[in-house]
Amino acid sequence: MNRHERLISELARHGLDAVAVVAGGTMRYLTGLDLHGGMRIMVAVFPASGEPAFVLPALEEPRARAIIPLPMRYYPWTDAEGPTAALAACARDLGLAGARLGIEYTSMRVFELRGIEAAAPSVEITDATPVFAALRMAKSADELASMRAAVQIVEGSLRAAIAQVRVGMTEIELGEIWDAAMRAAGSAPSFSTIIASGPNAANPHHTNSSRQLQQGDLVIMDGGAIYEGYASDITRTIALGEIVPELRSIYELTLAANKAGRAAVHPGVAPEQIDRAARGVISAGGYGPRFLHRTGHGLGIEIHEPPYIIEGNREPLTIGTTFTIEPGIYLDGLGGVRIEDDIVVTEQGGESLTTFERELIVI
Amino acid sequence: MNRHERLISELARHGLDAVAVVAGGTMRYLTGLDLHGGMRIMVAVFPASGEPAFVLPALEEPRARAIIPLPMRYYPWTDAEGPTAALAACARDLGLAGARLGIEYTSMRVFELRGIEAAAPSVEITDATPVFAALRMAKSADELASMRAAVQIVEGSLRAAIAQVRVGMTEIELGEIWDAAMRAAGSAPSFSTIIASGPNAANPHHTNSSRQLQQGDLVIMDGGAIYEGYASDITRTIALGEIVPELRSIYELTLAANKAGRAAVHPGVAPEQIDRAARGVISAGGYGPRFLHRTGHGLGIEIHEPPYIIEGNREPLTIGTTFTIEPGIYLDGLGGVRIEDDIVVTEQGGESLTTFERELIVI
Q1: Which residues on A lie below 8 Å from B103 (Cβ)?
Q2: What residues in A contact B79, CB-CB < 8 Å?
Q3: Which residues of A touch B203 (CB under 8 A)?
Q4: Whose CB has fewer CB within 10 Å in chain B, the N or C terminal residue?
Q5: Of the candidates A134, A150, A151, which has an alpha carbon nearest to the alpha carbon of residue A320?
Q6: Hey, are the CB atoms on A105 and B111 less than 8 Å from each other?
Q7: Residue A117 pLDDT > 90, yes or no?
C-alpha cells in the first residue's frame, strides 16, 4: 500500500470522514510538499473515499501540481479574492458540513481551524494526531536509507568538528565549524546546533554563546543533518583535559543509562519502559532529579515527532519506528552530560543508526 | 511607555481581559524569548491588570527568567506531570474562566487553544491579531537601527554575490555564495534565499535548483539577513548578457511600479492605495494578470507580518511602520522580474531602507 492508501485505511479504522492537513511534516509525508506555515490558508483534505482536495494560494498551485503524485482537485485562491470562497467550494464538494473531520492539533493554527469551521457548518473536529502518528512512525526502507545517510553526514561532520576543538574557541565558533562541515557534505543542520560548554552544559536547551572553551570543561555537542528531507540527531559530550571526578562519574552514569535504554528496545515494548530503563540507571546513581527531560523523541521528517519516549506512553513500538535515546545529567554551576543515539526498532531489538563512539573523548 | 505598558493600553482599548501569547514574533516582542513552537505547551498570559504569567516546560524556566525583563509569575510543568495542572493554576490565579481572552489566530495552534479552553471554562476567545499588529507595526528607533543593519548586511552580501555570478553556475551554488557572505558578516539568511533563473523566474516561489545560469537569463535574487532579531528582505533581478526585448520591457515596467509604490507612501495612506499605485502601472502596461501576488508585506521581527500591502487593507499607515514593496511580472516559459525594497513610513513619506541600485545590472 502506498501512503495515501494506508491513510484511507486508518481513516476507516478511526471512523473519520476526512482529514485536513496543513503545512508541516504530515503535509510533506502525504504530498511531498515542503511548506512553511505562512499567513495564507493552505489545506489539503483527504476524504475516506474519493479524490483528495487542496485549497491553496493560486501562486502555489503550479508547484503543488508538479510535486504531488496523487490525483487531486485544486481550489486555488488569489490575494484579491481571499480564501473564503475556495474553502466553501471545497467543503461543499467533499460534503464536510456535519462530517467527522480529523486535524492535527499540534500543527493546525486557529485561523485555519476557524476557516474550516466557517466553510463546513457543524463539522465535527477531532484530533487526528494518533492517525498521522500511526502512519508516520514506522519508516519504509526508503525512509530509513535517507535517515542512515543523514546520520552518516552528521557523524562525519561531528568528527571533523571535534578534530578542530581548541581551548579558547567560542561555542558559537565551534557550532559554525560543525554546521559548515554539514553544508560541505551537501546537507544542512536539521536544527540549531547546540554547543554547551562548562557550566553552560547544565542547561539542556542552551543557546550557543561567546563563552570560550576552557581546560576542565565538558562540552555537549548536539546536532543533526538533513538528507532527502529526513533528519538525524546526535549528541556527544567531550572533555577538555582533566575533568573533576563528579563530571567523570556523571559521564559514566549517563553512558550506562544510554546503554540500558538501547538494550530495552524491542518490538512491542512501550516507550515508557525505555524511559524507565534509562532513567532507572540515573536514579539508582542518585542523580534522578538532574535528568531534566524525557528520554527521547521520534525522529524522521521532523526532528520531534511521535513516539515520545516518556512515562505514560504505553503504545507498543512497531518494527521500523525511529526515535532518539538521549539521557542526560545536568549540575547547576558545574556542567552536564548528554549522550544521544538514533534508534530503529528491528525484529531483533533496537539498532542504533548512530555508531559514533560513546566513550569519553578527551581533547 | 514600554512594550508591556503599550500592550496594557491596547487591551483596554479593545475591551480584553487578557491576551495569551505562544511562540513566535509577538512572544519575542513582549518577552525577548526566541522560541520555536514545539510540542510542549508554552504560553504567556498578559492580563489587563496585575502581573503577567507564564506556563512553560520546567526546563525552559531558567532561560525565561534570565531573559524576560518583566516581573512575571511562572507556572513550570515537567514532562512527567504534563501541562494540565499548570495551565489550570494559571487560569485560576488570573481569573480566566469566563474572561475575554485575546489570542493570535495566526500563531496559536489548536492543541494550545484546547489546553486554554479546558483550563478556563467558558473563556471567550477572540482574535487579537489587530492588537498585536497595532503594537508591533510602528518600529522604535532601536528596532529601526537593527533593521538598517540587517539591510546593510544583505546589500553588501548581495553585491558580493553578484560579483561572482557566472554562466554555468547553478542556482543552488549562487544561493550558497550569497548565504555564505551573509554568514561571513556575522548574520544569517532570514529566510530561504531564492535564486530563480531563466524560465524558473516565472515562479515567484521558486525553490533553488541545479539549473545552470545561461546567457540571456533574467535571474531573480531574493534574500534577507537578520540583525539582532530583525529582518531585511531585498529582491533584485539581473541579466546575463543580452535579453529578449519583452524581458527588458517587463523589467522597466516593474521598476516603474516599484517607484510608483514607493512614491505613494505617506503617513495616513492605506496599504491598498500603495498596492493600487504599483499594480496600476503594471496593469496599464498590459501585464496586470502577470503580477501574481500582493505588492508587499510588513517586515520586522518576522519576515511576513502586518501590514499587508494588498487591496482591501484600509488601515492607515503610521510613522515608523516598515514593509516591503515588491512588484513583479511573471511570464510562463520565459522568465520574470521582481524588484523589492524595504520601506519605513516617515513624516515626509516613505524612506527606502534598501538603497541598492534598481537599474538593470547586466553581467
Answers
A1: 110
A2: 293-294, 310-311
A3: 59, 62-63
A4: N
A5: A134
A6: yes
A7: yes
Sorted by where each starts, the structural domains of chain B and their CATH numbers stand as: 3-136 (3.40.350.10), 141-362 (3.90.230.10)
**B63-79 pLDDT, tens per residue?**
899 999 899 999 999 98
In this prediction, residues A66-81 reach a mean pLDDT of: 92
* C-alpha to C-alpha distances, A55 to A286, B107, B182, B304, nearest whole angstrom: 55, 19, 36, 21
Q: Is A254 helix (H, G, I), strand (E, B) or coil?
A: helix
The DSSP code for A190 is: S
Nearest to B110 among A103, A203, A308 (CB): A103
Pull the grid cell for residue B54: 507564564
State residue A39's pLDDT score.
85
Q: Whose grid coordinates read 572553551?
A: A213
Strands B43-47 and B18-21 turn out to be: antiparallel
The 3-state DSSP class for residue B192 equals: coil
A interface toward B at CB cutoff 8 Å? 38-39, 58-60, 62-63, 79-80, 82, 103-111, 113-114, 127, 176, 183, 203-205, 207, 292-294, 304, 308, 310-312
**The pLDDT of residue A114:** 97
3-state secondary structure B220-248: EEEECEEECCEECCEEEEEECCCCCHHHH
Inter-chain CB proximity B110 and A111 less than 8 Å: no
Comparing C-alpha atoms, which of B189, B220, B216, B217 is closest to residue B207? B220
pLDDT range class, residue A33, cuts 50, 70, 90: very high
pLDDT given at position A172: 93
pLDDT at A30: 95
Distance of CA B186 to the CA centre of its chain: 20
* pLDDT tens track for B13-56: 999 999 999 999 999 999 999 887 788 999 999 999 999 999 99
Chain B residues contacting A, CB < 8 Å? 38-39, 58-60, 62-63, 79-80, 82, 103-111, 113-114, 127, 176, 183, 203-205, 207, 292-294, 304, 308, 310-312
Residues of B in contact with A111 (CB under 8 A): 105-106, 127
Checking DSSP bridges between strand B100-103 and strand B124-127, what pairing results, if any?
Answer: parallel
Would the CB atoms of B111 and A127 count as touching at under 8 Å? yes
Query: Which residues neighbour A115 within 8 Å (Cβ) at sequence distance 6 or greater?
Result: A41, A43, A83, A84, A87
What is d(CA B105, CA A110) in angstroms, rounded to the nearest whole number?
5
**Per-residue pLDDT for A1 more than 80?**
no
Q: At what angle do helices A271-284 and A245-263 cross, to 10 degrees?
A: 150
Rounded distance, CA A230 to CA A232, Å? Answer: 7
Spell A262-274 as b/e; 16+ CB within 10 A means b: bebbbbebbbbbb
CB atoms A108 and B105 under 8 Å? no
Share of chain A above pLDDT 70, in %: 100
Contact between B310 and A103 using a beta-carbon 8 Å cutoff: no
pTM of the predicted model as reported, rounded to 2 decimal places: 0.85
pLDDT at A79 over 90: no
Chosen from A19, A65, A108, A110 to mutate, greatest number of chain B CBs within 10 A: A110
Mean pLDDT (chain A) is 95
Per-residue confidence (pLDDT) for residue B286, from 0 to 100: 97
Q: Model confidence over A228-285: pLDDT tens digits? A: 999 999 999 999 999 999 999 999 999 999 999 999 999 999 999 999 999 999 999 9
Cβ-proximal residues to A264 (8 Å cutoff; 6+ apart), any chain: A273, A274, A276, A277, A278, A350
Picking from B103, B109, B183, the nearest residue to A107 by CB comes out as B109
Instruction: State the pLDDT at residue B1.
Output: 73
Bridge partners for B322 per DSSP: B344
